């Protein structure tokens, strides 16, 4: 995750649709209530680089699927899934339906299942439209992008100056608050994906759990990776290791060891303890960029001099209101 244009060819969006582009996945205990957890999937950056400029104002792709996948037994296959689908309402806005699937069917496309909420409103303005459904709270819509990174410094041969490219950018967020029992109450593996419905059926546009994983993959390998599943990620260890040797000067055996730590591409999360990336889940203020580049360069680059955004909220949905 933290893909932000790194998934499609030449920094374009997957399948040419910004609404299907996944940017970040977060998982952390609810502040003040350790019996509940918060899952956040951010998609659809408000700004693109190929082509350069703002993306569409429509938040989500109608009919597409946005899914959280949860592995509860360590085999990298989903045992629980939360699936969100959006539709256009009569007033030109969007509404959301959230479904929960448990068991063998959770590993599939999951466009049916137990309905948690339907016709939930999608936020397009500064006010967060929050929906309650039993033990769940839900938010769908535009928010300030919490990701922080000197992206221009990356393109300048990793000469970072602390210029945060994302400080005034927006994303579309799916935020779920749920009891830990809905996750399994123990260590789980999390990832997310977007799927596009075509005349030939469902096509997976993008998937991921950990930040920056797609950076390791050249064109054809990247497409295979984004179309794949965590259970099959062992096949990419060699590709990851080769890139680590090149980028960080790792010895071959050390590069393989680091690659095995990165794969399968799932975010490990234990709701019983505090969250902090890369050890447990990921909060909205975790500096994943510093962690990644320290690993990627084998300690040669350890910071981009950028810190968390100041517009985060202390209450649900936690992400700040969207910028104009």
Written account of the structure:
With 324 residues, the chain is α+β, with helices and mostly antiparallel strands. It has one domain (9-296). Helices cover 14% and strands 32% of the residues. Strands 5, 6, 7, 8, 12, 13 and 14 form a 7-stranded antiparallel sheet that branches. Strands 1-2-11-10-9 form a 5-stranded antiparallel sheet, with no helix packed on it. A two-stranded antiparallel sheet has the order 3-4. The longest helix has 12 residues, at 237-248. The model has no long low-confidence stretch (mean pLDDT 93).
Strand-helix topology:
Elements: E1 22-30, E2 33-43, E3 47-49, E4 52-54, E5 65-71, E6 80-88, E7 94-102, E8 114-121, E9 130-133, E10 136-144, H1 151-155, E11 170-179, E12 188-198, E13 201-208, H2 219-226, H3 237-248, H4 252-262, E14 267-269, H5 288-296
Helix pairs in contact: 3-4
What are the main properties of this structure?
324 residues, alpha+beta, 7-stranded antiparallel sheet, 5-stranded antiparallel sheet, globular
Helix count from the secondary structure assignment:
5
Q: Using the CA coordinates, give the radius of gyration.
A: 18 Å
Which structural class should the secondary elements be placed in? alpha+beta
What is the 3D shape? globular
Please provide the ordered H/E string of secondary-structure elements. Answer: EEEEEEEEEEHEEEHHHEH
């Amino acid at each position: 995750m933290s893909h932000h244009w790194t998934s499609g060819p030449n920094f374009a969006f997957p399948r040419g649709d910004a609404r299907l582009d996944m940017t970040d996945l977060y998982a952390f205990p609810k502040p003040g209530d350790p019996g509940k957890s918060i899952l956040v999937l951010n998609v659809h950056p408000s700004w693109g680089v190929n082509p350069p400029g703002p993306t569409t104002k429509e938040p989500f792709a109608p009919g597409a699927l946005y899914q959280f996948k949860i592995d509860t037994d360590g085999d990298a296959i989903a045992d629980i899934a939360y699936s969100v689908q959006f539709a256009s309402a009569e007033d030109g806005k969007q509404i959301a339906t959230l479904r929960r699937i448990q068991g063998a069917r959770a590993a599939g496309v999951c466009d049916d299942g137990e309905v948690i909420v339907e016709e939930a409103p999608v936020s397009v303005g500064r006010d967060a439209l929050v929906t309650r459904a039993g033990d769940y709270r839900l938010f769908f819509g535009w928010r300030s992008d919490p990701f922080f990174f000197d992206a221009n410094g990356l393109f300048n041969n990793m000469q970072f100056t602390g210029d945060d490219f994302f400080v005034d950018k927006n994303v579309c967020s799916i935020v779920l608050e749920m009891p830990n029992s809905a996750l399994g109450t123990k260590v789980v593996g999390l990832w997310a994906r977007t799927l596009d419905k075509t005349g030939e059926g469902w096509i997976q546009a993008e998937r991921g759990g950990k930040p920056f994983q797609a950076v390791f993959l050249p064109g054809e390998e990247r497409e295979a990776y984004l179309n794949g599943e965590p259970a099959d990620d062992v096949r990419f260890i060699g590709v990851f290791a080769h890139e680590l040797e090149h980028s960080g000067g790792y010895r071959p055996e050390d590069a393989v060891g680091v690659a095995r730590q990165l794969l399968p591409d799932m975010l490990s999360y234990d709701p019983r303890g505090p969250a902090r990336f890369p050890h447990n889940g990921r909060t909205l203020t975790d500096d994943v960029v510093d962690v990644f580049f320290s690993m990627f360069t084998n300690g040669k680059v350890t910071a981009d001099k950028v810190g968390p955004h100041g517009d985060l909220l202390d209450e649900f949905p936690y992400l700040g209101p969207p910028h104009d």
